Structure formats: structure tokens, C-alpha cells
Amino acid sequence: MEFGFSPEEQKLLEDVRRFLKSESTPALLSESQELGHIYGGREGRKFIQKFAARGWLIPNWPEKYGGLGMSATVSFAIREEMALASVPSEPSRPFNIIAPTCSLTRTRSSS
User: Fold this and answer.
1) Contacts for 56-60 with beta carbons within 8 Å, 24 or more apart?
2) What superfamily does domain 8-109 belong to in CATH?
3) How far apart (Å, rounded) are the C-alpha atoms in residues 73 and 47?
4) How do the domains of the chain map onto residue ranges?
5) What is the pLDDT of residues 13-64, one digit of tens each?
6) How far apart are CA 61 and CA 87, in angstroms?
7) What is the pTM of this model?
């Protein structure tokens, strides 16, 4: 059994790391630290908008709803990369819980 990431997933995570490195400005990192790495500051909002535009904020959501249709494991790996980069990551938590629940509920009720 293979427990690694697929080549597509590995490329995605490399893209995320490159983005985090290029977008983690001193102003963003300072603000993030001051706010306890919780989303809400001016720099954090600008960063999250760029991050979300790539589908990385909720990658486990279907593409038609702004995600990438990836697994929960990839979603966790992206959030881990955000934490390692010390950028704000709080806004995605509710969405990462809500999406699978809504999907499961919709699937069960439509059966």
C-alpha cells in the first residue's frame, strides 16, 4: 500500500511552498505573529485572498465550489505548510469541517 502523495499532489504542495515563500513578507509575518496567527489583519486578508484564489484555502471542496477536489489529506498538508510558514490560517478551519459534512449529508439525503 502506498502512503505517499501522488505526483500531482506533490506538485501542488511544491507550488504552495513556493507561494508561501514569495508572499510571506515581513509585514505579513509580523502582523500574523501579533495576532497569534489568526486571520483578520490587513496583510492577512490580502494574503488569504491571493491564497484562496488558487483554490488552496479549501482544496478538499469540489472545483465547482472553489476548491480543487483534493483529499482531506492534501488539505491537512496545505494547512501544515501554512503553519510552518507562520502565516494566518484560521479562516479555513470551519470550511474544512463544513464541506465534508455537507457533502455527506447531501449524498445520504439524495440516495
Assistant:
1) 56/16, 56/19, 57/91, 57/92, 57/95, 58/92, 58/95, 58/96, 58/99, 59/12, 60/96, 60/99, 60/100
2) Acyl-CoA dehydrogenase/oxidase, N-terminal domain (1.10.540.10)
3) 23
4) 8-109
5) 999 999 999 999 999 999 989 888 777 789 999 998 999 899 998 898 888 8
6) 21
7) 0.78
